[in-house]
Write a structure and sequence with these properties.
Number of helices: 1
Strand content: 35-45%
Radius of gyration: 19 Å
Low-confidence stretches: none
Shape: elongated
Helix content: 25-40%
Strand order of the largest sheet: 1-2-3-4-5-6
Distance between the termini: 39 Å
Order of helices and strands: HEEEEEE
Length: about 80
């Protein structure tokens, strides 16, 4: 009985992990424009836009939440502060 319960639990966990991994769409795009060179990397819900190898913008759930000037900072500067959940 215990073994059957563990097998069912394991199957449920594996199914959840498979579904979560499948819904996370990977993004890796680059393009040039008059404004400069842009590189976009990450996943659909959280990605980074890099401009001219200098500026980076963190986008989470469709909203730019932080930026970083790579010549001055190693960490992102969050708009409105970083939530410590």
């Amino acid at each position: 009985m215990t073994i059957a319960f563990l097998v069912i639990l394991l199957l449920i966990v594996v199914a959840i992990m498979f579904i979560r991994k499948k819904t996370s769409v990977k993004i890796d795009k680059a393009y040039m424009s008059d404004a400069g060179k842009f590189q976009i990397e990450g996943h659909a819900h959280s990605f980074i836009i890099q401009k001219d190898d200098r500026f980076e913008f963190l986008v989470e759930d469709g909203i730019i939440t932080a930026c970083k000037d790579r010549t001055r900072h190693k960490e992102f500067v969050y708009y409105g502060g970083k939530d410590n959940d």
